Fold these 2 entries.
Entry 1:
Amino acid sequence: MYDSYVLKICSDKTAFEAKATSPMKLDLLSIRDAAAKRTGMSLRVSLPAILLLEGKDGRIVNIYPSGRLLLRQFPSLDAARETVNLLAPLVYGSETEQVQ
């Protein structure tokens, strides 16, 4: 379990959002393949500014360099948390660059 992020429902209540508790800068291209493999999702967009993963069930995860994850089409907070916990070692782990 990682406590380096906060998970909540978005303000427009259409998605869940995970944010890093400390400022960070993530190299998305270096984690893209591992993120897709960990989640079992397909990589739909891979750019330095955004990764977009999509599951066969319609679930979508956007990953941003700031460590923000936007999780759409997830049925519950628990389902979103499960996916964030799969991605947490890549996104919020000790190998990510913390911004000072």
Entry 2:
Amino acid sequence: MDSLGEKIPEIKYSSDANEVPWENAVVWTIMPRVGPRVYEWLEREHIQYVSWTNGIVTILPGRDSILSDKCQCIVLPAGFTWIGKNVKTA
């Protein structure tokens, strides 16, 4: 499995949907060639806000997040992207 979570520890991942903090995270999925669907997520404490346009989801890291030292934003194709109700949107 080639997960962002393996490279960026703030991004968590699991193939068990019960482990996902659905209300407090942005969640997306990847389908490995072999095996179950993998859910990846970034919890709201690392997110300043989320926006989307034309099927593209953009996550701006929070100012106090470790991610803000690494990137300006994370851009995801919205094949399946879940934005929890407690995550700030723009």
